[in-house]
Amino acid sequence: MLELDGLVHEYDGARAVDGVSLTIPDGEFLVLCGPNGSGKSTLVRHLNGLLEPDAGRVLVDGTDVSDAPVAARTTVGMAFQEPRDQFVAATVGGDVRFGPENLGLDHEEIDRRAANALSAVGLDGRESDRIETLSGGERERLAVAGALAMAPTYLVLDEPFTGLDSPARERLLARLRDLNADGTGLIVVTHDLRDLLDDADRVVCLADGEVVVDATPGDAIEKLTEYGVRVPGR
Amino acid sequence: MLGYEPGDSLAHRLDPRTKLAVQLAFAAAAFAHTDPRGLAVLTGITALALASARLSPISIVWGYRFLLPLLAAAVLFELVTLGPPWVEFAAAVDPLLASYRTLLIVAVAAGYVRTTSARESRAAVQWAIPGKPGRLLGAGVGLVFRFLPLLRRDLAAIRDAERARLGDERPTRERLRTVGAAGLRRAFARADRLAMALSARCFSWNATLPRIRFRAVDVPAVLLAVGLGASMVV
Q1: Contacting residues of A for B198, CB less than 8 Å apart
Q2: What is the ipTM of this complex?
């Protein structure tokens, strides 16, 4: 379980996240939305200790993230907004192995995790492909595979659909549905809710660093348009 | 510049330690044998190295074309005089041989870069230099190999964006300043994002390194490295 308790984060005195408290149970499919600059990306970077809170705390399975950052980063996998920023190898296989290698696992376990992660995102058999040759949708799926290879309990995806055409978006979403059905908790950061509301368990909307909506998708729809979130059919 | 490409050439199959040894021995030999006969032998070895990596000399010249004006300048400075006789061929021989020697070293290094992944280089460095210094150097080498292609792509993107708005109509000095300043800003921003992505995937100084092992195919290359080393003493 992930718990945020009065989380505050400031950039040069300006509050990007302003006293957010949330509890995210295992296996939940949570959509975190809000207009540009509402603090979504800052908030999720606290979930695995990439940022230090100015106040408040983040607990992963009851342990403060700042006390055990490595444990938090294996529990909460993250794919960043721009996949290209997070690739650290020239090939698909090299990149997906990077995380498990850092955990000091043996070669057999690294191979197994890499194969499983690539299979989960539909990139099996592409290990020796150069990352530069992948399409935008495939890069996004590789970013997800890189996070999955850490065997996380939760997967955080920051704006995963940006720049993807409809088929690529649908392919990625199908993979995410499968992962969630297998028990991986999903936290999808977006400002565009197309296709997500049918699958999400919960929608949280931030505005000016504060939670302004926290409801089931059905209940959230009415309120979201007020905060600049694109809601399908509205 | 050339980067790593996965493949199945002879050089790809060599142990990275063997390739590193050949490269170091070659560079040392190139500084020891500066006469035309020595350079002729080294030219033959360079041709072998390029063939084993399936690289053409043209691709090397094109890939490192930015280096050519510097090498040519060294020759021209000695060749041309500010008064009669205006041209001194004899004075230009030594810089010509030195420039050619540099080109040979670059070509052999390009063969290494093209056929060795950052992970393998890191493993080879850490094998050669045990303990903490080796870990630091190995991880550093790995990061440089990973970061340089990203920087190069950023600079190309900035240059294209500048051209798209007719930036190439501006004076060279101004264009250099624009690309340089934007490139620096982007390099720092990218370094920040890469550091965060590395943290998210538990970057470790003690990561599991890829398997590297000497095989029969390494024997001739090791003998070549030993021969080059011995040629400096004999």
Answers
A1: 88
A2: 0.74
